[in-house]
């Protein structure tokens, strides 16, 4: 099984989902994407997670991010479980859930970790850029629900740093100052960062977030 690393092209696949057949790369189009697996349908943590994702759809749309979930359960199970998600989480599931009964996608993305569970997927998260390259990989155990505010925060950082020569410091949130990349010389800073900058150390230079008015 190939290991997927940051910067690799996200493997393409075709799979059935609750919104029809998906060819992953074609479905993404020019959007960013989140592919995330959950261990099983009709499980409590997963129910809260998928309900949360549905409520965050506007936030993902604002960032040009498409979201797709996956488990090794079948379409009938997914469709019936969606009713429970909508009822208990007071929302409407508005993204596809892949039915990966043959584990083709799970194995392609190394989502089954035998020492945790040899049948069910762990809570894998892959953030994929518009260039189809893998930008982020996070793996949670089945017992720990994901923080989707953190995923939005990371996407803000990934999208900012993809187009500007900056990095984001610890606990950074959208709108806060950022770090100027070490590869940028002091002479280049005025042209690249007209809002100004503060030098804390020669290697630690801060500037206001460049993509905000």
From TrEMBL:
GO terms for cellular component: cytosol. InterPro entries: AhpC/TSA (IPR000866), Peroxiredoxin_AhpC-typ (IPR024706), Peroxiredoxin_C (IPR019479), PRX_1cys (IPR045020), Thioredoxin-like_sf (IPR036249), Thioredoxin_domain (IPR013766). Belongs to the peroxiredoxin family. AhpC/Prx1 subfamily. Belongs to the peroxiredoxin family. Prx6 subfamily. The active site is at residue 46. GO terms for molecular function: peroxiredoxin activity. Pfam families: 1-cysPrx_C, AhpC-TSA. This is Peroxidase. Residues 4-160 form the Thioredoxin domain. Keywords: Antioxidant, Oxidoreductase, Peroxidase, Redox-active center. PANTHER family: MCG48959-RELATED (PTHR43503), PEROXIREDOXIN-6 (PTHR43503:SF4). GO terms for biological process: cell redox homeostasis. PROSITE patterns: THIOREDOXIN_2.
